[in-house]
Amino acid sequence: MANRKYSEATQPVEALRVKDFVAAGVEIGPENTEVVKVPKPVSEGLAAPEEAIGKTAKVSMVKGQYVYRDALETSVQLAPGHVEVLVPVDLASSAYALPGHKVNVYLVGKEGEAAIEVLSGIRVTRCLDSEGVAVGGCKGGIASPESNVPAVVGLEVPKDKAPQVVAAASAKRVYLAKAGPSQP
Prior knowledge:
By secondary structure, this protein is an alpha+beta fold. Helix content is 14%, strand content 33%. It folds into two domains: 2-73, Alpha-Beta Complex (Type Iii Antifreeze Protein Isoform Hplc 12), CATH 3.90.1210.10; 82-178. The strands form four sheets. It has a five-stranded antiparallel β-sheet.
């Protein structure tokens, strides 16, 4: 009995630890955090990886610090000189990109012309279903059955490119492709 209670109390769970300094307003992701195992009692208040990735830091965090739930926010923090453009999509044209993913943006021609890549390595800021509810039931890169089909994807677009993306989005001519690992 005592061994079972001890085993349950010391069962490891996944948490995130900061690899390098993370300033307030910076997005939490695999590039600035690492997944670590901690005993369950120690994990109280710590953010699990699936809770933290794609959110932004409310406060600055130092190397080696654990990521706590209350140190995260879901509001979109855009890079200077960028705007968020909401693009209507379906499952195929969204590339099932979730917040924090990087995508390449293609504009599809009206009469079957070849698609033209206009932006690469663009950050997805949000992904919503047709009722405005966040889509994000993703575990290990595979969509969970309980997740909804994306209807709108938010993209962090440079201000000078926004008019082109907005015009294409209003005509439903935007198609996304996940950016490769070498993309910024």
